[in-house]
Description:
Layout: H1 2-18, H2 35-47, E1 53-54, E2 60-65, E3 77-86, E4 94-103, H3 109-114, E5 123-128, E6 149-158
Amino acid sequence: MRKKFFIMLALPLVLAACKKTSKCPYTTPTVVANAAEVANLKATLDANAVVYTQHPSGIFYQVITQGSGAAPAVCNDVTVKYSGRIISSATPFDSNATGVTFALGELITGWQIGIPLVQKGGKIILYIPPSLGYGSAGSGAAIPPNSNLVFDIELLNVQ
Length: 159
């Protein structure tokens, strides 16, 4: 009888501990690139006659297709096709043409800011200054420190 009583008492505690929490560990980024980085990226875009919109954070972007439905938030998983390159190179350092899913909050700040500018089905080009990308560390041999980046992104799904 005591064993049954203990199980009945412990069961709600065990279930509560196993219950999946829906609290998001990410916050919407508020970081802003420094003025010198933004000026450098803007000068490069202007010299190449790129049509863009400047975001207050310091990223620049072109919405190719807006898409429809809700825009993703930093706590969403997003499925995207993308290609990324250093602005001074035509060769991509990374791409995925079939679609890959990421937690938006785990991606570089430039993506966290830029991807929510479109909805599911949307296409956007992001021009990202170093501090909103891989910064002074770069990323391996493919992305040198302090690189301005360009990403062509298609938002396939928002979960």
